[in-house]
Specification:
Elements: H1 10-69, E1 80-81, E2 87-93, E3 98-105, E4 111-119, E5 130-142, E6 149-151, E7 155-156, E8 161-166, E9 190-192, E10 200-201, E11 206-207, E12 211-213, E13 219-220, E14 226-227, H2 230-233, E15 241-242, E16 247-248, E17 271-273, E18 276-278, E19 280-282, E20 285-288, E21 292-293, E22 296-299, E23 302-307, E24 312-313, E25 320-323, E26 328-333, E27 339-342, E28 344-346, E29 354-358, E30 366-370, E31 375-389, E32 396-410, E33 413-418, E34 428-436
Parallel strand pairs: 6-9, 6-32, 7-10, 7-32, 8-11, 8-33, 9-12, 10-13, 11-14, 12-16, 14-15, 19-22, 20-23, 21-24, 22-25, 23-26, 25-28, 26-29, 27-30, 29-31, 30-31, 31-32, 32-33
Antiparallel strand pairs: 1-2, 2-3, 3-4, 4-5, 5-34, 17-18
């Protein structure tokens, strides 16, 4: 008798199915875990990168504070002095709980430390944890005047122009704070941010400094012109040449408009001083020009003169401005017309004591400086074309700096840039170095 045996495979199939399901489940769980870890890692990486713009906001906050308060009033604008001797401020950035904690060390120049905090992925809203990054910034003071000549457009210097520099605060490069040719420096730089072809036209002038243009810009030089240091220009065979490394076309900078300070102004009057009659005498205070402002002007204190849009600064002939030793004059010009300045006699010989500021409303106008004697002062008018002219056949010294829309020179000018101006004239702190710590 044969007995038929039937092999049952039901149990094996179930076991195999369970094993397969387990393997698939483990694989799926591993994959999901991998995806979750990768997602978290990506999110953490994004947050790590996001901390930089957050802390940069803190640096901008600190630079703005320094712009308005320097290092003398850092407690203003809700900054607080910490136990570490630094001034601190904390501010939320965006809507996701990110914030910065920035501090300023009250030294000159100050150091800024900014920490950016960004919530970690899946962080609890009630009790978040943060990714943080810290950057320390060292600053330096930069004034409105960083070159002898700075323009938005073109510079045309003509036949008889010379530019060099000195430092009124360094006896090695000045005599009692005054320019001396034997102590000249080669920091008489010329810069144009326009990016035009031939935007700096040296012609036959001598530039003891560097020429800088924006990308796309270029310069031209005449047969007798020279750009370079003292040794280079002492060799007559270098006429018509630019010393290697003394021209660049990678300039990047901006020329911000001047802001008119809030003041109450009074109308000036004339008088007689020391046996001389003056059309206007400006003592310490804030004065306003009415109509056509001209004549002989004596400045005896720290004076501000405002030229409103409907007035005109229009000096000619024997007109002039005399600034007594120890006095100073700032002119804020809002006139929509052309302006003429003649004969600024700066008794102290300090370029910071005379400052002309062209306000935005002066855009499109021309500022003519008709020099008949030595000029000591600064011109900051990024929206006006500045024309320097002289009928003298002898050389006239121009001690100071010019910032303009464009600049044209005719006549015999020797321009001496006082490098001390880099720290004055609306100075502000800028970033010198940036280090993550």
């Amino acid at each position: 008798m044969k007995i038929a045996l039937k092999t049952r495979t039901d149990g094996s199939v179930i076991i195999l199915a369970l094993i397969t399901a387990a393997v698939i489940g483990i694989s799926l769980a591993s994959y999901l875990s991998l995806i979750s870890t990768q997602s978290t890692s990506v999110a953490r990486s994004m947050n790590w990168n996001s901390a930089i713009p957050v802390l940069e906001s803190g640096i901008e906050e600190a630079l703005t504070q320094l712009h308005y308060t320097a290092v003398t009033n850092l407690s203003a604008n809700s900054w607080s002095l910490g136990a570490d001797g630094y001034y601190h401020k904390t501010r939320t950035v965006g809507t996701y709980g990110s914030y910065f904690d920035v501090s300023i060390r009250p030294t000159d120049p100050p150091t800024i430390t900014s920490i950016g905090y960004v919530p970690t992925p899946l962080s609890s809203t009630a009790n978040p944890t943060y990714v943080k990054r810290t950057v320390q910034v060292k600053t330096q003071l930069r004034g409105m005047y960083v070159n002898a000549l700075t323009v938005k457009g073109t510079v045309s210097l003509g036949q008889n122009f010379l530019v060099d520099s000195f430092d009124s605060t360094d006896p090695l490069y000045s005599t009692n704070g005054q320019y001396t040719a034997s102590k000249r420096k080669t920091g008489g730089d010329i810069a144009s941010i326009g990016g035009f072809v031939n935007e700096v036209q040296v012609d036959s002038s001598q530039i003891f400094g560097k020429v800088k243009t924006a990308p796309g810009g270029s310069m031209s030089i005449g047969n007798k012109g020279m750009v370079g240091d003292i040794a280079f220009q002492s060799n007559s065979s270098n006429q018509g040449k630019v010393q290697s490394g003394w021209y660049s076309d990678d300039l990047s900078m901006d020329l911000p408009n001047v802001e008119m300070p809030t003041m109450t102004f009074f109308s000036p009057v004339g008088g007689r001083v020391g046996g001389t009659n003056y059309d206007y005498i400006l003592t310490s205070g804030n004065w306003i020009a009415n109509g056509m402002f001209k004549g002989n002007i004596l400045v005896t204190g720290n004076a501000v003169l405002y030229v409103p849009p409907d007035a005109t600064l229009h000096m000619s002939g024997s007109d002039g401005i005399i600034i007594a030793p120890g006095a100073s004059l700032k002119i804020y010009n809002a006139s929509t017309g052309n302006c003429i300045i003649c004969g600024v006699e700066n008794g102290g010989g300090d370029a910071t004591k005379f400052a002309y500021y062209g306000l935005p409303s002066s855009a499109g106008g021309i500022l003519s400086l008709n020099a008949n004697s030595r000029f000591v002062g600064t011109i900051y008018s990024p929206n006006q074309d500045v024309r320097l002219s002289s009928s003298n056949t002898s050389d006239l010294d121009f001690v100071g700096s010019v910032v303009a829309n464009s600049a044209t020179a005719s006549g015999h000018f020797l321009m001496h840039f006082d490098e001390n101006l880099k720290k004055s004239g609306g100075s502000s702190y800028v970033v010198l170095s940036w280090n993550e710590i």
